[in-house]
Amino acid sequence: MPSLAFTNRRRSIVAVILLIFASLGSVVVYQKRHGRWEFLSFRRWIQKPEVIPLFEAKDAMLRSGNPALKEVCITFDDGPHRESREQILAVLKRFKVKATFFEVGMRMAQNPDLLRRTIEDGHEIANHTMYHQNLPGLKPDTLHKGINDADITYYRLTGKHLRILRPPGMKFDTTSLAEAKRLGYIVVSYTAASADYGDNVDPAKVVERTLRNTHPGGIVLLHDYPATATALPKILDQLTREGYHFVTTSEMIAHLPPKERQLALKVWNGVEEKQQLPRPAFLLPSVAQSTPAKLATQNTKSVPKGS
Ligand SMILES: [Zn+2]
Fold this sequence. Notes:
Layout (H helix, E strand, L loop, with lengths): L3 H31 L7 H5 L8 E2 L4 E2 L8 E7 L7 H10 L5 E4 L1 H6 L1 H9 L3 E4 L12 H19 L5 E2 L8 H9 L3 E3 L3 E2 L9 H11 L4 E6 L2 H16 L3 E3 L1 H6 L3 H12 L38
Parallel strand pairs: 2-7, 3-4, 3-9, 3-10, 4-5, 6-7, 8-9
Antiparallel strand pairs: 1-2
Helix pairs in contact: 3-9, 6-7, 8-9
This protein binds zinc ion.
C-alpha cells in the first residue's frame, strides 16, 4: 500500500499534466476558431510586423488617418437613399458631426434634393461610381465612364468636381487604380466595417461592431440605409463620450503626419506642397475658431460634351 505522501505527489503530477493538456487544448481551439496558426510559427516570432502606410503614393490611396490623433472619419456609402438620408442628416446635425458621403451617380440624379441638403449641411461628397459597378475587369471605356459619369452628374448639379473615390466593395485592380489616379482621385479605404447592409440588419449589432472596430485615425464604413440611421445616435454618442473628434476625409488627409501629408497633397494638387499646413484646430485651444486646412478645390477635370 503506497504511503500518503506518495499518493499526494502522484495526484499533484496528474493535476499538472491535466493542466498542461487543457492549456494546449485551448490554444488549439483558439487557433482553429480564428483560423490563424501563425501564432505557432517560428517565422512570425522573428519577423517584424508589417507596417501598412497610412497613405500609399503609388495607388494614391488613403488607408487610415493619423493614429496619433483622437479623430475619426464617418463615411456613408451607396446613397443618397430616400428611406434613410434625411434621418442620417438629422442625427449628424444633432451631434454636430460632419461626415463624408460616397454617393452613387445614378442616385444623385434621382435624388438631387437629398444631395443638395447634404451639401448645405456641410458634409463632404465623394464618388462611389455611376451605377455601383465592380471596377475590376471592366473594359477601359466602361471603367472610365463608371467613375467619370458620377462626377459629371455631380458637376451638373453643383458646378463642382469630385476628388475622392471609393470603389464599390473596395474592389479594385491595377487598371482601375491607375484610371482613378489619372482622373486625379484619392482613393479612400476604411479601417472599420460594421456589415450594416443587406436584409434583416440588427442596429444593435451595427453599433457593437462599429464601436469595437473604431480606433484613433479610423475611417468608419457605414451605409446610407435605415438600420444604420437607427444605429447612428448610439455610435456618435459613445464616440463623443470617448473624446473622438469627427473629420471629413479631406480634413483627415490634411491631418496626416508630414511625410504622408506631402505625398497626398502632391497627388491632390499635382505639385509639391511647399507651405506647412497648420495643426488641426482642436489641438490648438487658443485658436479654436480656426478652420482645418482646406485642400485645393480647383477644377482639373473637364466635362466631355454630350455625355
Ligand atoms: Zn457601395
